[in-house]
């Protein structure tokens, strides 16, 4: 049987994991695989970027697939080549430097980028983050943040979610004082209730991270050469020498929109991860399934398995029906896990709660009709936090 050409746009965790799942189902005999990656590296574990930033791991330790792996598996890798457009009529993928690849099946796995709020002065004339302001999404972001943190006295992290707190702790390791700016009244408000968020804040402050909640950032202050501070909606200001933006993600769905696929928050897919064009699939953070866009790793693995089942004909009935979300944080003596809902939502919901703030312990279970629908588990080592 003649092989088909499978082109994957995106060399991140979702795209490469999908290829591995396809290979596990006999896909090497079915497809000649081409992968486009706009970063100049092999595939690495983005979950461990915070470890690279805080110095507990070297960049080389977080790679999942180095460049030789692609050659060993007969994968044609266009490393450091960004795709510019997709021609669905001719079934061609066009990339930078005049690269053109035909496809029979196409997987879009372009992931996401840091969401940048509409803050005055945060972008330069080219519409990119100004000098001294960074997102926290890539290995290069880590390197740039660490290099800058070592040269300055103070940094501000806009966003008090999981990524923001990990970035704040990483920056502290390199000598800069850190302020976390969060719009909501308590930290990690998407995953924690107010009591847990309050305990987490106290722990962060005991580590030396200054936390400012209920703050809306309106402007990045400074000139073309350097950042000098932030201004807030309430009229107050904060001095800082650098800014890290950790306010969520924005799916990289522009390629899908340009080639005529259905795009809402991200590229819309069905239960088999197919777009409206059945020869084009989307997976990972650039895909929207039943109105949901996932930014955690576990859903990407679920999606990769279903896509691989379908495209390899291993199980054409395999379907993706969404994923249950769980969030974990482990930062210098703070360990927490959150899953499901954080507050009761139905009249029959029961709450089991255990709190020992002085000992840094908090547990909350939400039970509906005998089933667990939400949980928060947090333990703070007071010795590590002080």
Task: Explain what you see.
The protein has 386 residues and is an alpha/beta fold. The protein folds into 3 domains: 4-112 and 250-311, FAD/NAD(P)-binding domain; 116-247, FAD/NAD(P)-binding domain; 341-385, no CATH class. It is 22% helix and 33% strand. The chain is built from 9 helices and 27 strands. The strands form 8 sheets. It has a 5-stranded parallel sheet with strand order 5-2-1-9-21. Helix 1 (13-24) packs parallel to helix 8 (297-311). The protein is globular. The N and C termini lie far apart (65 Å).
Annotation keywords:
single chain; alpha/beta; FAD/NAD(P)-binding domain; five-stranded parallel sheet; 9 helices
Question: What layout of secondary structure does this protein have?
Answer:
Elements: E1 4-9, H1 13-24, E2 31-37, E3 43-44, H2 49-54, E4 63-65, H3 67-72, E5 76-79, E6 83-87, E7 92-95, E8 100-102, E9 105-108, E10 112-114, E11 133-134, H4 139-149, E12 154-158, H5 162-172, E13 177-182, H6 194-207, E14 210-213, E15 217-222, E16 227-232, E17 237-239, E18 242-245, E19 249-251, H7 254-258, E20 267-269, E21 280-282, E22 287-289, H8 297-311, E23 326-331, E24 334-340, E25 350-356, E26 361-368, E27 371-380, H9 382-385
Parallel strand pairs: 1-2, 1-9, 2-5, 9-21, 11-18, 12-13, 12-18, 13-14, 20-22
Antiparallel strand pairs: 3-4, 6-7, 7-8, 10-19, 15-16, 16-17, 23-24, 24-27, 25-26, 26-27
């Amino acid at each position: 049987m003649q092989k088909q050409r499978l082109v994957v746009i995106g060399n991140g965790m979702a795209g490469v994991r999908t290829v591995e799942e396809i290979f596990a189902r006999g896909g090497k005999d079915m497809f000649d695989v081409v992968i486009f990656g706009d970063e100049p590296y092999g595939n690495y574990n983005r979950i461990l970027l915070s470890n690279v930033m805080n110095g507990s791991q070297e960049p080389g330790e977080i790679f999942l697939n180095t460049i030789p792996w692609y050659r060993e598996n007969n994968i044609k890798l266009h490393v450091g080549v960004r795709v510019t457009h997709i021609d669905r009529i001719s079934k061609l993928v066009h990339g930078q430097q005049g690269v053109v690849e035909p496809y029979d099946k196409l997987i879009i796995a372009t992931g996401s980028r840091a969401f940048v709020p509409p803050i005055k002065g945060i972008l330069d004339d080219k519409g990119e983050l100004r000098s001294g302001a960074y997102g926290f999404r890539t290995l290069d972001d880590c390197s740039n943040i660490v290099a800058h943190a070592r040269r300055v006295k103070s940094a501000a992290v806009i966003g008090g979610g999981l990524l923001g707190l990990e970035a704040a702790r990483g920056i502290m390791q390199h000598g800069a004082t850190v302020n976390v700016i969060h719009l909501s009244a308590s930290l990690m408000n998407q995953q924690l209730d107010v009591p847990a968020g309050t305990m987490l804040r106290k722990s962060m402050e005991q580590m030396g991270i200054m936390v400012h909640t209920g703050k809306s950032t309106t402007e990045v202050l400074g000139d073309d050469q350097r950042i000098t501070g932030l201004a807030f909606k309430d009229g107050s200001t904060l001095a800082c020498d650098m800014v890290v933006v950790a306010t969520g993600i924005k799916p990289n769905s522009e390629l899908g929109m340009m080639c005529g696929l259905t795009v809402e928050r991200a590229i819309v897919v069905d239960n088999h991860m197919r777009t409206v064009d059945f020869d084009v699939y989307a997976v990972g953070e650039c895909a929207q399934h039943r109105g949901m866009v996932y930014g955690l790793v576990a859903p990407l693995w679920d999606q990769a398995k279903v896509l691989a089942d379908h495209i390899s004909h291993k199980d054409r009935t395999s379907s993706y029906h969404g994923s249950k979300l769980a969030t974990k944080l482990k930062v210098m003596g703070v360990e927490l896990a959150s899953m499901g809902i954080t507050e009761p939502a139905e009249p029959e919901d029961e709450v089991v709660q255990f709190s020992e703030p002085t000992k840094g312990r908090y547990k909350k279970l939400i039970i509906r009709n005998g089933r667990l629908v939400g949980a928060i588990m947090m333990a703070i080592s007071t010795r590590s936090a002080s």
